[in-house]
Amino acid sequence: MNGRASPPAAVLTGLGGWLPPRVVTNDDLVRRLDTSDEWIRSRTGISRRHVIDPGMSTAALAVEAGALALKSSGGGDVDSVIVATTTPERLCPATAPLVAARLGLTGVAAHDVSAVCTGFLYALASAVGQIAAGLARRVLVIGAEAYSTIINPLDRQTAVIFADGAGAVVVEAGSPDEPGAIGPMVLGSDGELSDLITIPAGGSQQRSSGQPARPEDHYFQMRGRDVYRHAVERTTAAAQAALERAGWQAGDVDRFLPHQANARICSAIGDELGIPAERRAGNIDRVGNTAAASIPLLMADTVASGLLGPGDRVLLAAFGGGLTWAATTLTWPASAGLRQPTHPGSSTA
Ligand code: UT7
User: What is the DSSP string of 277-315?
Assistant: First the structure.
């Protein structure tokens, strides 16, 4: 014993999710792509998704979700705003300062996290670190995506999966033993496989190459089958490591909330972990793959549907471009704001 007090934990106190009102069904996609409702449902589990209208972009989604999370946490200020996104407002500067300003939080720390579909958990890890280091006592963590702005409308593999939306949480300094405390976090990456998910054009690599970009290189590109295999392997391993560090067995998990990449991927990971289907949460059928927004949107949906409540032991895990992966655990807190029902219409807070 060195007598040193353990650093404060980040405790979940607020949650909000927001989806743009416009719904795109599989049949809508069939009208412009060589695909079918049957293929999309059976291969991905998706039946519809939400997309922004022209003129809306990531910051607007982030502000909606962020405001709901702050409200559910009792309002007030935060010391830091972190936005995880694959679709920043601009290449430079980051989106988070703009979001903070629109939320009336000018002056606070604000930065973006770029880890594609793993972005929310990486952003949460950043919040955990800021709180543990004493840099912040209250942090707003947002995952927000306007994927429809980077998807090639002619690429049937990605156009049927990815969608728009935003989810957010508030975490505050507290005790590692209290419900809501974010457990040990597992983070990893493999940049040798950075080409599996990429937008090849627009960055310094392409700009300094002297080569003009092909139009399709401005869009999100994915080697789906390879990503699929890695997603199952890496997410399972990260989730197992997070369980081990928390001192939990798979049988201790009341609710598994995996990043909603593809319903088949989520099932395969659940099977590998030995978590029965009735303990897994999913909303991909209604929202598609919303990348960095996926986990907080799923949290909000699962609470709203009554399948996640105080005392439930929760496992979160995600995988995405980079490649990147992450997982963590928490016991669901009882705070009133986290029990708000789903707002009718487009919100899921
Ligand atoms: O969010 C984190 C990162 N992303 C992911 O984790 C996504 C990972 N990958 C996937 O979810 C799946 O690989 C996809 C949904 C993208 C594709 O599903 P799949 O079962 O892996 O299909 P596939 O790529 O092996 O393609 C099977 C067939 C191909 O036709 P052939 O070559 O067998 O004749 C594709 O051309 O399905 C075809 N195909 C489609 N057919 C109808 C691919 N996309 C479509 C489509 N509609 N939308």
Answer: GGGB---HHHH-B-GGGHHHHHHHHHHHTTSS-TT-EEE
CB distance 117 to ligand 1 below 6 Å: yes
Does 224 contact ligand 1 (Cβ within 6 A)? yes
Preceding omega of 341 cis (within 30 degrees of 0) = no
Mean pLDDT of 178-195: 98
Q: 34 alpha carbon to ligand 1 midpoint, in Å?
A: 13
- 240 Cβ closer than 6 Å to some ligand 1 atom: no
Mark which of 153, 174, 195 sits at the end of a domain: 174
Q: In terms of residue numbers, what domain contains 201?
A: 186-337
Domain membership flag for residue 179: no
Give the list of residues 6+ apart from residue 38 with CB closer than 8 angstroms, or none: none
The CATH number linked to 242 is 3.40.47.10
Q: 222 C-alpha to center of ligand 1: Å?
A: 10
Averaged pLDDT for residues 124-146: 98
Nearest CA to ligand 1 atom 6: 261
Is 1 inside any structural domain? no
**pLDDT of residue 38 exceeding 60:** yes
DSSP string, 329-344: EEEPP--GGGGPPPPS
